[in-house]
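Board work, copied verbatim: B12-binding domain-containing radical SAM protein
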Amino acid sequence: MNPSHAPHILLVNPWIHDFAAYDFWANPLGLLTLGGILRHHGARVSYLDCLDRFHPSSASRPSPSARCGRGPYLKTVIAKPPGLEDIPRNYCRYGIDPDWFRRDLSAMDPPDLVLVTSLMTYWYPGARETIAAVRSIHPQVPVVLGGIYATLCTDHARRTCGADRVVVGPGEGAILPLAAEMTGWSPTPRFDPQDLDSLPRAAMDLASRLVHVPLLTSRGCPFQCAYCASHRLQPRMMRRSPRSVVAEIEYWHRHHGVRDFAFYDDALLVDAERHIIPLLEGIIAAGMDVRFHTPNALHIREITLPLARLMRRAGFHTIRLGLETTAFERRQSMDRKVNEDEFLRTIGHLKAAGFNAGQVGAYLLAGLPGQDVTGVENSIAVVKQAGVTPVIAHYTPIPHTPMWDDAVAASRYDLASDPIFTNNAIFPCQSETFSWEVLTRLKQLAGH
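↓ predict structure ↓
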């Protein structure tokens, strides 16, 4: 293309292939942040969301206000991947009909570059199918894959997914040089990737219907838990100013009518006096009728009674706590985030601030290497006795984390051979065959 002409760049959020998937305030924030940068510099940006619950062709589009913006994806049963045929559950493509996607892609002007994101490592078949669908319509257009799977399983992605390029790590600093290389268009950068306040607003408005907006007020995490890849994905802790976050919330609420916001931070409450407290005070002062949700879990020991009261006044609606286990005497090998007294004290603060059991949930990891089911059942009982909701979080073995070698040794699958075997829905680190009865019992105990 002519270097003086801004390109047409297409963003694509791929299908999910899995045994289970649900929209818990999920948005491809990284991809749409790149879209905001490209649009800010003059590119024409389009967006196709293979997970779109509100697609115009859907016969049963949900109400935007239902479940605070959450909801089930459309799904179609598909063949199970090789090696998982013995799992007694349906395996599905979650998202829109592939014919709708190809029709939408054919109807738009041909793009000069296609950017596809990726999330869970074992969701790569959905990314691969998405890239193949793009190729079927525009075989000559370059396709770039980025995101979490691309970063954690780079060699596998390069061999498997069919993209022209696999980008590793945060894309903000790489996107303009990449666009220049792929299209010949080379604008002068008007932001600093190391200054989060300078990033243009994410292109959330490209969604067919905007029912919830993700918020990332910081990147990175000071903790290095054995089961988590946060430090690998974002080694450096970076923060936005509270003022810029409040301005973003006001923009989406007042200009687009968004009421539900989900914090994606890994360490939202750390250094509270300089970060979350002024942020909450700014939200309260703005007088907005909004709801906040914390699907990424909050650090328990950071919650004081004054902070809990501020969270309540600001509109926090769904609280998820990173408890992981109540076997406190054995958790040193996993993390050092909380002890029993801190957990119970925090529950007391949240209750005193006015949060009820339905709003507060504690994540409990199930399926850890060497973990006994009895330990999970005991943790469920402790959380219920504390008066909040136990939320079972299935452990996903993640490459490059300290727990990875233990996971590989414990698994009945060859985890290192294919990310498909790390699917947390099948309890891959159990040595015995998947048991639907065990999973059902845990769900019943937790009240799911």
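The chain has a mean pLDDT of 93.
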